[in-house]
Design a protein that fits this description.
- This protein has 11 helices and 11 strands.
- It is α/β, with parallel strands linked by helices.
- The strands form 2 sheets. Strands 3, 4, 5, 6, 7, 8, 9, 10 and 11 form a 9-stranded mixed β-sheet that branches. The chain has a two-stranded antiparallel sheet with strand order 1-2.
- A hairpin with a 2-residue loop joins strand 1 and strand 2.
- Helix 1 packs across helix 2.
- The protein starts with a helix and ends in a 5-residue tail after the last helix.
- This is LysR family transcriptional regulator.
- It comes from Thiohalophilus thiocyanatoxydans.
- Keywords: DNA-binding, Transcription, Transcription regulation.
- GO terms for molecular function: DNA-binding transcription factor activity; transcription cis-regulatory region binding.
């Protein structure tokens, strides 16, 4: 099997369009068709349902998606590690959900870059399920998530407790803030459950956002209210551009570092976590 076949399969599954996949991969559409056909012949099954303007994965294609991701990621990592072997640098892959890159990981990866020139750092953003899958198949060294799974293969370590507070562009109480341009930010499953318990009669928010940084920018430019990390909004509270809603309770979220217990870099990972700034 050719690695390009898997890359092409992933691109077609992402774009659901052979022509767009060809454009993105800088090859002809006939080359894309040939690669997919070759992969299907080798597997002995169809991977796509081909209808005009409607390309869908077959059940076999859905199953293949995960394996193709693992194969292409492992190949890219192998190329990186082999290429770095002569330089003496050690590849180190860091993954996190978007919200934790904003709050924790940007600062940490900068610290690692300054203090550990023996490491070749690679950062990725994915949702929690993809990150944990990457940790389990050893194509990522460490991941940072809110909702850590229970798995005997994984080592899980709490690294930060985030204090989420309700803030608004205008001083008000919680009922007023929830009723006026409230943004529901997705800080993970436990947060959403606690939020629903705390505000059972809340009107349905007009805006849901999965990233705290985007919600903050929206508040500053358009007004409204949202639960955001206190460390993220403190400068704007000090300036008076945002106001804390004092009768809305703070909600704590724990951020976890997750790595594969069988990772050969386990001791290094623990050392680097020990050096992580306190939050």
């Amino acid at each position: 099997m050719d690695i390009h076949d898997f890359v092409t399969f992933l691109e077609v599954s992402r774009t659901r369009h052979f022509g767009q996949a060809a454009k993105n991969l800088h090859v002809t559409q006939s080359a894309v068709s040939a690669r997919i056909r070759q992969l299907e012949q080798q597997l002995g099954t169809a991977l796509f349902i081909r209808e005009r303007n409607n390309i869908q994965l077959t059940p076999a294609g859905e199953k293949m998606l995960r394996y193709a991701e693992v194969i292409t990621t492992a190949w890219n990592r192998a190329r990186q590690e082999v290429g770095l072997s002569q330089s003496g640098q050690l590849p180190f892959g860091i993954g996190g959900i978007v919200s934790l890159w904003d709050i924790l990981l940007q600062t940490w990866i900068q610290q690692l870059h300054r203090e550990h020139d023996e490491l070749a750092l690679h950062g990725e953003t994915h949702d929690s399920d993809v990150l944990i899958r990457r940790i389990l198949n050893n194509t990522l060294d460490i991941a940072f998530v809110f909702d850590a799974p229970q798995n005997d293969t994984l080592t899980i370590r709490a690294v930060a407790t985030l204090n989420l507070i309700m803030v608004a562009s205008q001083a008000s109480n919680a009922d007023q803030a929830l009723a006026r341009d409230y943004i529901l930010v997705d800080w993970g499953t436990a947060f959403l459950i606690r939020h629903a318990q705390q505000f059972p009669d809340q009107p349905t928010p007009r805006l849901h956002i999965g990233q705290g940084r985007i919600a903050l920018a929206f508040l500053l430019n358009n007004g409204g209210s949202a639960y955001l990390a206190e460390s993220m909004v403190q400068p704007y509270l000090d300036e008076g551009r945002l106001h804390r809603i004092n009768d809305a309770p703070a909600i704590e979220r724990t951020a976890y570092a997750v790595y594969n217990s069988q990772n050969a870099k386990s001791e290094l990972i623990e050392q680097l976590l020990d050096e992580m700034p306190a939050y």
